[in-house]
Amino acid sequence: MDHSTHTQRPTGRALTRLAVSATLHCLTGCAIGEVLGMVIGTALGWSDVQTIALAVALAFVFGYAFTIGPVMRSGLSLRAAIPIALAADTLSITVMEVVDNAIMLLVPGAMEAHLDSWLFWGALAFALAVAFVVTVPVNRWLISRGKGHAVVHAYHGGGHGGGHGGTHEDGDRRTADAHGADQVRHGHH
């Protein structure tokens, strides 16, 4: 049964602002993991495949952690927060990582550059910026359908929605978002 009519989903500029906010949130976790993975792999002289594998793994760890933490602070257990984070961030992080790492591989010499090289840091910054631009429409599409960060929104205390206060609409959205999280936990999409 589709309960999507229980909530008024954002549209237009509000939807775009929410998508940008969700993407910045995702970018923060991904960037920390990505930079850490690239720095470790490069410092240890690992191959491109090993370095990228570590960077991607850490990007997912940090990306999910940046969602799980606030969800748990809202009162949910770790066990309940994990599926919410997976539902909210998996597609966004995946798109960001595919774009980011593809660019790092395509920029000549970027993966071989040393950590003290402007080429390494410039390519990484450029890759993350492009990944952000590509991921915003993905998050916008997800949120417009009540997926992605729309599921986690209720647990952030309205932090991604621009401070609506405690309106009836917010209560309805929290109820619908909580129901969406229940559906995710129980395997219904």
Automatic annotation (TrEMBL):
<keyword id="KW-1133">Transmembrane helix</keyword>
<dbReference type="InterPro" id="IPR025509">
    <property type="entry name" value="DUF4396"/>
</dbReference>
<feature type="region of interest" description="Disordered">
    <location>
        <begin position="160"/>
        <end position="189"/>
    </location>
</feature>
<feature type="compositionally biased region" description="Basic and acidic residues">
    <location>
        <begin position="166"/>
        <end position="189"/>
    </location>
</feature>
<protein>
    <recommendedName>
        <fullName>DUF4396 domain-containing protein</fullName>
    </recommendedName>
</protein>
<keyword id="KW-0472">Membrane</keyword>
<feature type="domain" description="DUF4396">
    <location>
        <begin position="19"/>
        <end position="148"/>
    </location>
</feature>
<feature type="transmembrane region" description="Helical">
    <location>
        <begin position="84"/>
        <end position="106"/>
    </location>
</feature>
<feature type="transmembrane region" description="Helical">
    <location>
        <begin position="52"/>
        <end position="72"/>
    </location>
</feature>
<dbReference type="Pfam" id="PF14342">
    <property type="entry name" value="DUF4396"/>
</dbReference>
<feature type="transmembrane region" description="Helical">
    <location>
        <begin position="20"/>
        <end position="46"/>
    </location>
</feature>
<keyword id="KW-0812">Transmembrane</keyword>
<feature type="transmembrane region" description="Helical">
    <location>
        <begin position="118"/>
        <end position="138"/>
    </location>
</feature>
